[in-house]
């Protein structure tokens, strides 16, 4: 799952949210025998931005438009 590191170090999922939600839903329905682990990789680190600047950057396209 691609993530962006936010203004105070929190991770923001930027794609594959349906996959992640599905895994979580199955783990709730089937309990601990259904693994709910998921792997992520960081595509951008904006931890040094103020929250308002971070969200302005994300609204402008964030790291997705940078790589296009």
Summarize this structure as a short list of keywords or feature phrases.
68 residues; alpha+beta; 3-stranded mixed beta sheet; 3 helices; 18% strand; elongated
Summarize the model shown.
With 68 residues, this protein is α+β, with helices and mostly antiparallel strands. It has helices at 17-30, 51-59, 62-66; strands at residues 2-5, 11-13, 41-45. Strands 2-1-3 form a three-stranded mixed beta sheet, with no helix packed on it.
Structure in words:
The protein has 68 residues and is α+β, with helices and mostly antiparallel strands. The chain has one domain (2-66). Helix content is 41%, strand content 18%. A three-stranded mixed β-sheet has the order 2-1-3, with no helix packed on it. The protein is elongated. The two termini are 18 Å apart. The model has no long low-confidence stretch (mean pLDDT 83).
């Amino acid at each position: 799952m691609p993530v962006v590191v936010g203004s105070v170090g929190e991770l923001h999922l930027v794609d594959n949210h349906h996959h992640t939600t599905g895994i979580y839903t199955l783990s709730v329905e089937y309990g601990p025998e259904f693994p709910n682990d998921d792997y992520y990789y960081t595509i951008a680190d904006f931890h040094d931005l103020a929250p308002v600047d971070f969200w302005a950057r994300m609204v402008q396209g964030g790291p997705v438009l940078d790589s296009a």
